[in-house]
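Appendix B, example 12.
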Amino acid sequence: MNGPWIWIDSPDKLRDARQKIFQSRALCIDTEYDSFRYFRERLCLIQIRDGATTYLFDPLDSLDFSFLGGPFADPAVLKIFHAGDNDIRLLKRDYGFQFRHLFDTQRAASLLGSQHLALSTVIDTFLKIDLDKTKKMQRSRWDRRPLSDAQIRYAIRDTLFLFPLYETLSALLAERGLIEQGEAVFAGMAAVVWQEKTPHPRAHERIPGYEVLTDNERLRLRRLVEWRFAKAREVDRSAFMVLSDQELLRLSQSRTPSLTFFREQGLLPPGKIDRYGTEVLAVLAAAGTSPAG
């Protein structure tokens, strides 16, 4: 069910993988990345299958994977993805790779009228194979080493069925006269680029409880949300891991704020007070310390 795989963790394995990949005319590609815990999505694993073996490349290691840019940009080599937009964005961002001659099984299934486009569902629909995949594994700690056996099985399965899925879907596209439409979609995917997150000017208005705040409290909440965005970018952590929405809401309503007040009222955990308390006080002071409207 998992197929042969090799974890590339030495120059010898890297050299062998390079030789096999350069000989292949079709590569099945996937990545695992963490967009849940980090401000900038962290690329944690690259899976490439040459038709016989899945090679696992570790972006957190120091090995040089730049040779992959050759087959990725080669129009004679087919690159097969499933929902590959973010994979392509991150590979471009971190390595400068370019892509030509793609096929995306999710987009192809969509063109064929499928409404449910998760990889496991598409495989079940078109290959009649039950692939057990869970969101829990997708959000597991891909940034930690070593990866668990379950994580490795999950990563391998993401590439294992892509080539037979491509064969089935491409035949159906041809049968329905959708080849040119598919090629246009795939070319658009090859052109995607990663973009830095930017703050939404009205993000504070989306926080539950905003509607009951006074004008001054709303201003304080807005300033806190702006500060949190900048801090999350600085420490490369998701905004909610810096301070949660409800923590910001409570802070915006706090009276006579001080580090002691934060502790006594339980507005923030001790660790967050130590890390961010002084900065939060400065934000509140700049916005006006009185919560009265």
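The first strand starts at residue 5 and ends at 8. Residues 215-235 form the longest helix (21 residues).
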